[in-house]
From TrEMBL:
Assigned keywords, A-Z: DNA-binding, Repressor, Transcription, Transcription regulation
Keyword Transcription regulation set for record: yes
Protein name as annotated: MerR family transcriptional regulator
Keyword match Hydrolase: no
Domain of life the protein comes from: Bacteria
Residues in HTH merR-type domain copies: 1-69
SMART domains, A to Z: HTH_MERR
InterPro entries found in the cross-reference section: DNA-bd_dom_put_sf, MerR-type_HTH_dom, MerR_fam, Methyltransf_11, SAM-dependent_MTases_sf
Pfam name, any one: MerR_1
Length: 343
DNA sequence: TTTCTTACA
DNA sequence: TGTAAGAA
Protein backbone atom coordinates (compact mmCIF):
# COMPACT_ATOMS: atom_id res chain seq x y z
CA UNK A 1 0.00 0.00 0.00
CA UNK A 2 1.48 3.27 -1.13
CA UNK A 3 0.51 6.75 -0.11
CA UNK A 4 -0.15 9.41 -2.66
CA UNK A 5 3.23 11.08 -2.60
CA UNK A 6 5.03 7.86 -3.36
CA UNK A 7 2.64 7.11 -6.18
CA UNK A 8 3.06 10.56 -7.64
CA UNK A 9 6.83 10.41 -7.72
CA UNK A 10 6.78 6.88 -9.01
CA UNK A 11 4.49 7.77 -11.88
CA UNK A 12 6.12 11.09 -12.48
CA UNK A 13 3.07 13.24 -11.81
CA UNK A 14 1.67 15.36 -9.04
CA UNK A 15 -0.62 14.53 -6.18
CA UNK A 16 -3.10 17.04 -7.48
CA UNK A 17 -3.37 15.19 -10.74
CA UNK A 18 -4.02 11.89 -9.05
CA UNK A 19 -6.72 13.39 -6.85
CA UNK A 20 -8.18 15.08 -9.89
CA UNK A 21 -8.59 11.74 -11.65
CA UNK A 22 -10.33 10.42 -8.59
CA UNK A 23 -12.62 13.43 -8.63
CA UNK A 24 -13.49 12.57 -12.22
CA UNK A 25 -14.29 9.03 -11.18
CA UNK A 26 -11.40 7.32 -12.94
CA UNK A 27 -9.97 5.60 -9.88
CA UNK A 28 -11.02 4.83 -6.34
CA UNK A 29 -8.16 4.19 -3.94
CA UNK A 30 -8.81 2.75 -0.51
CA UNK A 31 -9.04 5.27 2.28
CA UNK A 32 -7.64 4.68 5.78
CA UNK A 33 -9.01 5.93 9.07
CA UNK A 34 -6.94 9.09 8.73
CA UNK A 35 -8.60 9.74 5.39
CA UNK A 36 -5.30 9.09 3.65
CA UNK A 37 -5.46 7.46 0.21
CA UNK A 38 -3.74 4.12 -0.17
CA UNK A 39 -2.87 2.66 -3.55
CA UNK A 40 -2.29 -0.94 -4.56
CA UNK A 41 -0.42 -2.32 -7.57
CA UNK A 42 -3.68 -2.49 -9.49
CA UNK A 43 -4.26 1.18 -8.82
CA UNK A 44 -0.80 1.95 -10.09
CA UNK A 45 -1.42 0.11 -13.32
CA UNK A 46 -4.69 1.85 -13.82
CA UNK A 47 -3.15 5.23 -13.15
CA UNK A 48 -0.38 4.42 -15.56
CA UNK A 49 -2.83 3.73 -18.36
CA UNK A 50 -4.82 6.85 -17.51
CA UNK A 51 -1.64 8.89 -17.74
CA UNK A 52 -0.71 7.24 -21.02
CA UNK A 53 -4.07 7.90 -22.61
CA UNK A 54 -3.95 11.46 -21.33
CA UNK A 55 -0.54 11.83 -22.93
CA UNK A 56 -2.00 11.18 -26.38
CA UNK A 57 -4.65 13.78 -25.80
CA UNK A 58 -7.65 11.76 -24.70
CA UNK A 59 -10.00 13.63 -22.39
CA UNK A 60 -10.75 12.32 -18.91
CA UNK A 61 -14.32 11.69 -20.00
CA UNK A 62 -13.18 9.51 -22.91
CA UNK A 63 -10.72 7.71 -20.70
CA UNK A 64 -13.49 6.93 -18.27
CA UNK A 65 -15.56 5.33 -21.01
CA UNK A 66 -12.55 3.42 -22.27
CA UNK A 67 -11.74 2.07 -18.83
CA UNK A 68 -15.29 0.99 -18.18
CA UNK A 69 -15.75 -0.88 -21.44
CA UNK A 70 -12.52 -2.79 -20.78
CA UNK A 71 -12.45 -4.69 -24.09
CA UNK A 72 -12.14 -1.87 -26.54
CA UNK A 73 -9.10 0.19 -25.74
CA UNK A 74 -7.99 -0.28 -29.32
CA UNK A 75 -11.13 1.30 -30.64
CA UNK A 76 -10.66 4.43 -28.57
CA UNK A 77 -7.03 4.70 -29.51
CA UNK A 78 -8.13 4.49 -33.11
CA UNK A 79 -10.62 7.30 -32.63
CA UNK A 80 -8.03 9.37 -30.86
CA UNK A 81 -5.62 8.92 -33.73
CA UNK A 82 -8.24 10.20 -36.15
CA UNK A 83 -8.90 13.21 -33.97
CA UNK A 84 -5.21 14.01 -33.90
CA UNK A 85 -4.94 13.66 -37.66
CA UNK A 86 -7.77 16.13 -38.06
CA UNK A 87 -6.06 18.60 -35.77
CA UNK A 88 -2.81 18.11 -37.61
CA UNK A 89 -4.46 18.78 -40.95
CA UNK A 90 -6.13 21.87 -39.59
CA UNK A 91 -2.80 23.21 -38.40
CA UNK A 92 -1.24 22.44 -41.75
CA UNK A 93 -4.02 24.38 -43.44
CA UNK A 94 -3.43 27.30 -41.12
CA UNK A 95 0.30 27.34 -41.75
CA UNK A 96 -0.35 27.16 -45.47
CA UNK A 97 -2.58 30.20 -45.51
CA UNK A 98 -0.31 32.13 -43.18
CA UNK A 99 2.48 31.54 -45.66
CA UNK A 100 0.30 32.94 -48.40
CA UNK A 101 -0.65 35.93 -46.28
CA UNK A 102 2.97 36.71 -45.57
CA UNK A 103 3.79 36.43 -49.23
CA UNK A 104 0.96 38.76 -50.20
CA UNK A 105 2.00 41.16 -47.52
CA UNK A 106 5.57 41.33 -48.75
CA UNK A 107 4.68 41.66 -52.41
CA UNK A 108 2.32 44.58 -52.53
CA UNK A 109 1.18 47.16 -50.05
CA UNK A 110 -2.54 47.49 -49.61
CA UNK A 111 -3.71 43.92 -49.64
CA UNK A 112 -6.07 43.68 -46.72
CA UNK A 113 -8.74 42.27 -48.98
CA UNK A 114 -6.47 39.48 -50.10
CA UNK A 115 -5.72 38.58 -46.52
CA UNK A 116 -9.38 38.63 -45.61
CA UNK A 117 -10.13 36.43 -48.57
CA UNK A 118 -7.47 33.96 -47.54
CA UNK A 119 -8.82 33.86 -44.01
CA UNK A 120 -12.27 33.26 -45.34
CA UNK A 121 -11.04 30.51 -47.59
CA UNK A 122 -9.36 28.87 -44.63
CA UNK A 123 -12.52 29.10 -42.62
CA UNK A 124 -14.57 27.26 -45.20
CA UNK A 125 -11.81 24.71 -45.58
CA UNK A 126 -11.88 24.03 -41.86
CA UNK A 127 -15.63 23.73 -41.91
CA UNK A 128 -15.51 21.24 -44.74
CA UNK A 129 -12.93 19.10 -42.99
CA UNK A 130 -14.92 19.03 -39.77
CA UNK A 131 -18.39 19.22 -41.19
CA UNK A 132 -18.37 15.71 -42.48
CA UNK A 133 -21.41 13.87 -41.32
CA UNK A 134 -22.91 10.52 -42.00
CA UNK A 135 -26.15 11.46 -43.69
CA UNK A 136 -26.89 7.91 -44.60
CA UNK A 137 -26.32 6.41 -41.17
CA UNK A 138 -23.90 3.68 -42.10
CA UNK A 139 -23.48 2.71 -38.48
CA UNK A 140 -26.91 1.18 -38.53
CA UNK A 141 -26.46 -0.29 -42.00
CA UNK A 142 -23.21 -2.02 -41.19
CA UNK A 143 -24.53 -5.39 -40.12
CA UNK A 144 -26.70 -6.02 -43.12
CA UNK A 145 -24.53 -4.25 -45.65
CA UNK A 146 -23.21 -7.23 -47.57
CA UNK A 147 -26.65 -8.78 -47.71
CA UNK A 148 -28.20 -5.64 -49.09
CA UNK A 149 -25.54 -5.59 -51.79
CA UNK A 150 -26.85 -8.84 -53.15
CA UNK A 151 -30.37 -7.60 -53.39
CA UNK A 152 -31.19 -5.66 -56.46
CA UNK A 153 -33.21 -2.52 -56.33
CA UNK A 154 -36.70 -2.81 -57.65
CA UNK A 155 -36.17 -0.76 -60.77
CA UNK A 156 -32.73 0.61 -60.14
CA UNK A 157 -29.80 -1.59 -59.35
CA UNK A 158 -26.79 0.50 -58.37
CA UNK A 159 -24.77 -2.63 -57.77
CA UNK A 160 -24.97 -3.95 -61.27
CA UNK A 161 -21.44 -4.92 -62.40
CA UNK A 162 -20.28 -4.53 -58.80
CA UNK A 163 -17.84 -7.43 -58.83
CA UNK A 164 -16.58 -6.59 -62.32
CA UNK A 165 -15.82 -3.08 -61.15
CA UNK A 166 -13.92 -4.19 -58.07
CA UNK A 167 -11.93 -6.67 -60.13
CA UNK A 168 -11.12 -4.01 -62.68
CA UNK A 169 -9.87 -1.66 -59.98
CA UNK A 170 -7.48 -4.26 -58.59
CA UNK A 171 -6.36 -5.21 -62.07
CA UNK A 172 -5.54 -1.57 -62.82
CA UNK A 173 -3.76 -0.89 -59.56
CA UNK A 174 -1.73 -4.10 -59.60
CA UNK A 175 -0.82 -4.06 -55.90
CA UNK A 176 2.67 -5.38 -55.26
CA UNK A 177 3.98 -7.38 -52.37
CA UNK A 178 4.94 -5.13 -49.48
CA UNK A 179 3.19 -2.06 -50.82
CA UNK A 180 0.95 0.04 -48.66
CA UNK A 181 -2.53 0.74 -49.95
CA UNK A 182 -5.32 2.86 -48.57
CA UNK A 183 -8.91 1.90 -49.25
CA UNK A 184 -11.15 4.86 -48.58
CA UNK A 185 -14.71 4.22 -47.47
CA UNK A 186 -13.73 0.62 -47.09
CA UNK A 187 -17.07 -0.38 -45.57
CA UNK A 188 -16.93 -4.10 -44.95
CA UNK A 189 -13.66 -4.35 -46.84
CA UNK A 190 -14.91 -5.83 -50.09
CA UNK A 191 -12.40 -3.99 -52.26
CA UNK A 192 -9.52 -3.53 -49.85
CA UNK A 193 -9.40 -7.21 -48.94
CA UNK A 194 -8.65 -8.12 -52.55
CA UNK A 195 -5.20 -6.59 -52.13
CA UNK A 196 -4.29 -8.77 -49.17
CA UNK A 197 -3.59 -12.02 -51.08
CA UNK A 198 -1.19 -10.06 -53.27
CA UNK A 199 0.90 -9.25 -50.23
CA UNK A 200 0.01 -5.59 -49.83
CA UNK A 201 -0.60 -3.90 -46.52
CA UNK A 202 -4.09 -2.44 -46.57
CA UNK A 203 -5.30 0.49 -44.51
CA UNK A 204 -9.09 0.55 -44.56
CA UNK A 205 -10.55 3.96 -43.82
CA UNK A 206 -14.19 4.47 -42.95
CA UNK A 207 -16.10 7.00 -40.94
CA UNK A 208 -18.47 4.40 -39.54
CA UNK A 209 -17.34 2.61 -36.40
CA UNK A 210 -19.74 -0.20 -37.00
CA UNK A 211 -18.55 -0.74 -40.56
CA UNK A 212 -14.99 -0.95 -39.29
CA UNK A 213 -15.99 -3.47 -36.70
CA UNK A 214 -17.64 -5.67 -39.31
CA UNK A 215 -14.68 -5.18 -41.62
CA UNK A 216 -12.25 -6.26 -38.95
CA UNK A 217 -14.28 -9.36 -38.27
CA UNK A 218 -14.33 -10.30 -41.95
CA UNK A 219 -10.75 -9.33 -42.67
CA UNK A 220 -8.54 -9.31 -39.55
CA UNK A 221 -5.50 -8.35 -41.65
CA UNK A 222 -6.90 -5.03 -42.77
CA UNK A 223 -5.50 -2.13 -40.77
CA UNK A 224 -8.76 -0.44 -40.00
CA UNK A 225 -8.89 3.31 -39.22
CA UNK A 226 -11.50 5.95 -38.49
CA UNK A 227 -11.48 8.72 -41.04
CA UNK A 228 -13.01 10.11 -44.20
CA UNK A 229 -12.23 11.60 -47.59
CA UNK A 230 -11.46 15.06 -46.28
CA UNK A 231 -9.23 13.95 -43.43
CA UNK A 232 -7.37 10.74 -44.13
CA UNK A 233 -5.62 9.23 -41.10
CA UNK A 234 -2.42 8.70 -43.06
CA UNK A 235 0.84 10.64 -43.24
CA UNK A 236 1.99 12.57 -46.31
CA UNK A 237 3.36 10.37 -49.07
CA UNK A 238 2.74 7.19 -47.15
CA UNK A 239 0.60 5.32 -49.67
CA UNK A 240 1.75 3.41 -52.72
CA UNK A 241 -1.78 3.23 -53.99
CA UNK A 242 -5.31 4.28 -53.14
CA UNK A 243 -8.54 2.50 -53.92
CA UNK A 244 -12.09 3.54 -53.26
CA UNK A 245 -15.37 2.08 -54.36
CA UNK A 246 -18.91 3.26 -53.93
CA UNK A 247 -17.89 6.00 -51.58
CA UNK A 248 -17.03 9.22 -53.39
CA UNK A 249 -20.67 9.88 -54.14
CA UNK A 250 -21.20 10.57 -50.45
CA UNK A 251 -19.19 13.74 -50.80
CA UNK A 252 -20.56 16.85 -52.51
CA UNK A 253 -19.17 17.92 -55.85
CA UNK A 254 -17.35 20.83 -54.20
CA UNK A 255 -15.80 18.57 -51.61
CA UNK A 256 -14.68 16.10 -54.24
CA UNK A 257 -11.92 18.42 -55.37
CA UNK A 258 -10.66 18.69 -51.81
CA UNK A 259 -10.96 14.91 -51.53
CA UNK A 260 -8.70 14.46 -54.54
CA UNK A 261 -6.15 16.81 -53.05
CA UNK A 262 -6.27 14.85 -49.84
CA UNK A 263 -5.56 11.66 -51.77
CA UNK A 264 -2.72 13.44 -53.51
CA UNK A 265 -1.29 14.40 -50.14
CA UNK A 266 -0.92 10.86 -48.86
CA UNK A 267 0.19 9.33 -52.15
CA UNK A 268 3.83 8.66 -52.95
CA UNK A 269 5.34 9.93 -56.21
CA UNK A 270 4.43 7.40 -58.93
CA UNK A 271 1.52 6.29 -56.77
CA UNK A 272 -1.73 5.01 -58.27
CA UNK A 273 -5.36 5.76 -57.57
CA UNK A 274 -8.43 3.82 -58.64
CA UNK A 275 -11.85 5.32 -58.03
CA UNK A 276 -14.81 3.12 -58.76
CA UNK A 277 -18.11 4.79 -58.18
CA UNK A 278 -21.52 5.84 -59.31
CA UNK A 279 -20.96 8.81 -61.58
CA UNK A 280 -21.74 10.21 -64.98
CA UNK A 281 -19.23 10.50 -67.79
CA UNK A 282 -19.92 14.21 -68.12
CA UNK A 283 -22.67 16.80 -67.83
CA UNK A 284 -24.26 15.84 -71.15
CA UNK A 285 -24.33 12.23 -70.26
CA UNK A 286 -25.82 13.01 -66.91
CA UNK A 287 -28.68 14.86 -68.61
CA UNK A 288 -29.10 12.04 -71.11
CA UNK A 289 -29.27 9.28 -68.50
CA UNK A 290 -31.59 11.21 -66.23
CA UNK A 291 -33.85 11.97 -69.15
CA UNK A 292 -33.98 8.29 -69.90
CA UNK A 293 -35.09 7.49 -66.36
CA UNK A 294 -37.69 10.24 -66.54
CA UNK A 295 -39.09 8.87 -69.75
CA UNK A 296 -39.48 5.41 -68.33
CA UNK A 297 -40.93 6.88 -65.15
CA UNK A 298 -38.26 5.35 -62.97
CA UNK A 299 -38.76 7.36 -59.80
CA UNK A 300 -36.59 5.02 -57.79
CA UNK A 301 -33.58 5.84 -59.92
CA UNK A 302 -34.29 9.55 -59.98
CA UNK A 303 -34.65 9.67 -56.24
CA UNK A 304 -31.44 7.75 -55.66
CA UNK A 305 -29.52 10.06 -57.95
CA UNK A 306 -30.92 13.13 -56.32
CA UNK A 307 -30.20 11.90 -52.81
CA UNK A 308 -26.49 11.44 -53.35
CA UNK A 309 -23.70 13.19 -55.20
CA UNK A 310 -22.85 11.27 -58.34
CA UNK A 311 -19.66 12.73 -59.71
CA UNK A 312 -19.09 14.28 -63.08
CA UNK A 313 -16.28 12.06 -64.32
CA UNK A 314 -14.86 14.74 -66.58
CA UNK A 315 -14.35 16.97 -63.56
CA UNK A 316 -12.44 14.27 -61.72
CA UNK A 317 -10.25 13.73 -64.74
CA UNK A 318 -9.64 17.45 -65.08
CA UNK A 319 -8.70 17.86 -61.41
CA UNK A 320 -6.31 14.94 -61.55
CA UNK A 321 -4.67 16.38 -64.64
CA UNK A 322 -4.24 19.70 -62.89
CA UNK A 323 -2.43 17.86 -60.12
CA UNK A 324 -0.13 16.37 -62.71
CA UNK A 325 -1.61 12.90 -63.03
CA UNK A 326 -1.96 10.65 -66.02
CA UNK A 327 -5.58 9.56 -66.15
CA UNK A 328 -7.54 6.69 -67.70
CA UNK A 329 -11.23 6.05 -67.48
CA UNK A 330 -13.46 3.06 -67.90
CA UNK A 331 -17.24 2.64 -68.02
CA UNK A 332 -19.09 -0.38 -66.73
CA UNK A 333 -22.50 1.02 -67.47
CA UNK A 334 -24.23 4.40 -67.66
CA UNK A 335 -23.73 5.19 -64.00
CA UNK A 336 -20.77 3.07 -62.96
CA UNK A 337 -17.31 4.20 -63.94
CA UNK A 338 -13.71 3.96 -62.93
CA UNK A 339 -11.15 6.72 -62.91
CA UNK A 340 -7.58 5.51 -62.75
CA UNK A 341 -4.82 8.04 -62.11
CA UNK A 342 -1.06 7.80 -61.87
CA UNK A 343 1.09 10.42 -60.22
C1' DT B 1 5.45 15.77 8.57
C1' DT B 2 2.06 14.43 5.61
C1' DT B 3 -2.26 14.44 3.56
C1' DC B 4 -6.94 16.35 3.02
C1' DT B 5 -10.36 19.67 1.41
C1' DT B 6 -11.72 23.74 -0.78
C1' DA B 7 -11.28 27.74 -3.45
C1' DC B 8 -9.41 30.04 -7.23
C1' DA B 9 -6.37 31.02 -11.24
C1' DT C 1 -3.93 21.08 -13.50
C1' DG C 2 -1.04 24.39 -10.37
C1' DT C 3 -1.08 27.00 -6.12
C1' DA C 4 -2.44 28.42 -1.60
C1' DA C 5 -4.37 28.10 3.02
C1' DG C 6 -6.39 26.12 7.09
C1' DA C 7 -7.44 21.73 9.43
C1' DA C 8 -6.77 16.95 10.96
Amino acid sequence: MMKIKEVATKLNTTQRTIRFYEEKGLIQPDKGDNDYRYYTEQHLWKLQTILSLREVGMSTAQIKKTLMSEEEVGRYLNMQRSALYEEWLEIKDMIGTIDQMIEKNEDQELVKEDIFALADQLKTLKEKRKGWQDQWNFDSQARGYDESLKMNGYRFNVHENYEDALAKAIESIRPLKGEKGVDIGTGTGNLGSKCLPLGAHVIGVDQSEEMLKVCKEKHPDIDVRNGHFLALPVMDGEADFITTSYALHHVTEQEKELALREMDRILKPKGRIAIVDLMFANAHDRARVIKGFEEEGNQEALYAIEDEFYADRSNLVEWFKQLGYTVHTHSFNDILHMVYAEK
